Automatic annotation (TrEMBL):
It comes from Haloferax denitrificans ATCC 35960. Residues 16-82 form the Polymerase/histidinol phosphatase N-terminal domain. This is PHP domain-containing protein. One of its GO terms (molecular function) is 5'-3' RNA exonuclease activity. Pfam families: PHP, PHP_C.
Length: 234
């Protein structure tokens, strides 16, 4: 997915799935190995592991990423008082339950990137318009959608407000890793680094790409969520 080849002049475009879960999330059973294997198979340059309020999978991911030739961007999907927030480039999970703008500022002050995932989708803990402040970017393509209506809404909102748009699969199963992703333009001689990726997003050098999940994939994901949530209360 990336290009031009290393060593060429001009910017290089990286393919990065910025929203992926592992078994460190309460609603996912996917291993780090499965994430990285699938990311390599579909040609991703990097993947952001963004578990729910946890960075438990990051040490393992960092240890083995070189075996797959895929860069791991550290992250977490934070539960704020106003909905979910992707904190990219952070090694420690931010405090949960705070207002989204306050959480976003804390992420930015720590050198991370604050991205609003699946905005306006309240049943998925998506933030409302009034809560989207002090953030760096908006996820305008989330693969876990049936109609694409909310993605279009997010894209128009980001364009009007001048936010960079990102794409992420929100994968909870291996087959969905890379189903949505972000192309990020970085300097050709900069390598595939977290800093280069985050800087490219901040600068708005992004394009969100992907395909929606099928009805079968959609229902399968929610069936898994229901089973795991029920198990967590037993």
């Amino acid at each position: 997915m990336s290009g031009p080849a290393q060593g060429s002049r001009g910017p290089r475009t990286l393919a990065v799935d910025l929203h992926v879960h592992t078994d460190a999330s309460y609603d996912c059973e996917m291993s780090v190995e499965a994430v990285l294997a699938r990311a390599a198979a579909v040609g991703l340059d990097a993947v952001a592991i963004t578990d729910h309020d946890s960075v438990g999978s990051l040490p393992r991911a960092f240890d083995i990423a070189h075996e797959y030739g895929v860069r791991v961007v550290p992250g977490v999907e934070v539960s704020t008082a106003d909905g979910h927030l992707l904190a990219l480039g952070v090694d420690d999970p931010p405090t949960t339950g705070r207002p989204l703008p306050e959480t976003a500022r804390a992420v930015r002050e720590s050198g991370g990137l604050a991205v609003v995932p699946h905005p306006f989708q309240t049943f998925r803990h998506g933030a409302s318009r009034r809560a989207i402040r002090d953030v760096d970017a908006v996820e305008v393509y989330n693969a876990h959608t049936l109609t694409g209506f909310r993605n279009g809404q997010a894209r128009r909102y980001a364009r009007r407000r001048g936010f960079p748009g990102t794409g992420g699969s929100d994968a909870h199963r291996p087959a969905l890793v890379g189903q949505a992703y972000t192309t990020v333009s970085v300097e050709a001689d900069g390598g595939v680094t977290t800093d280069a990726i985050l800087e490219g997003i901040r600068a708005g050098r992004t394009v969100a790409r992907g395909t929606r999940t099928t009805a079968r994939q959609y229902l399968r994901k929610y069936a898994l969520n229901a089973r795991l949530k029920t198990a967590s209360f037993l």
